[in-house]
């Protein structure tokens, strides 16, 4: 994968040997996928953002809110052990993703961007080998993952959901590609 983020920042080449800066590479690829998710939603009207085209029933807006909460769960509550109100806020009583009534698409996008910015700060200020603090999501040392593990987990989560949005976007208006 090569290319640039929407701000013109080049993505690193995929590693052919050990990368010189694995930390920077992980952060760059996460930003690439965060940007990809937003680009997949760009151009969809509000009705399409709130509508599900899939048997599982989730909407693109619900997926974006889910990803914002994933960022918060893994880096703020998980890695830093910050107390966060309702870490599972993306789920309703049945465990399905939801967007609270009255929440606009712009508010969901802003929430997503704010969580990503905070995650970027956290991930940039720690070493890949640092373990998650105890007291938030993790209560024992044995269960506390390293920052590298968390970032790889987030990367796979984004790659998976970007692929889901590829399908939704193609079904919605025929748009394909990155």
From TrEMBL:
Bias (Pro residues) ranges: 11-22
Stretches the record annotates as Disordered: 1-22
Cross-referenced Gene3D superfamilies: dinb family like domain
Pfam families reported for this sequence: MST
Protein name (database record): DUF664 domain-containing protein
């Amino acid at each position: 994968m090569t290319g640039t983020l929407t701000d013109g920042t080049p993505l690193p080449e995929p590693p052919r040997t050990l990368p010189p800066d694995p930390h920077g590479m992980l952060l760059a690829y996460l930003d690439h996928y965060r940007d990809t998710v937003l680009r997949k939603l760009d151009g969809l009207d509000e009705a399409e953002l709130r509508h599900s085209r899939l048997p599982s029933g989730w909407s693109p807006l619900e997926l974006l809110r889910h990803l914002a909460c994933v960022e918060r769960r893994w880096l703020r509550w998980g890695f830093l052990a910050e107390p966060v109100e309702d870490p599972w806020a993306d789920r309703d009583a049945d465990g399905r993703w939801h967007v609270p009534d009255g929440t606009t698409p712009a508010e969901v996008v802003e929430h997503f961007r704010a969580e990503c910015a905070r995650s970027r700060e956290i991930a940039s200020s720690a070493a890949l080998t640092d373990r998650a603090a105890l007291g938030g999501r993790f209560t024992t040392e044995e269960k506390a993952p390293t920052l590298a593990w968390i970032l790889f987990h987030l990367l796979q989560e984004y790659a998976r959901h970007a692929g889901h949005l590829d399908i939704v976007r193609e079904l919605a208006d025929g748009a394909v590609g990155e």
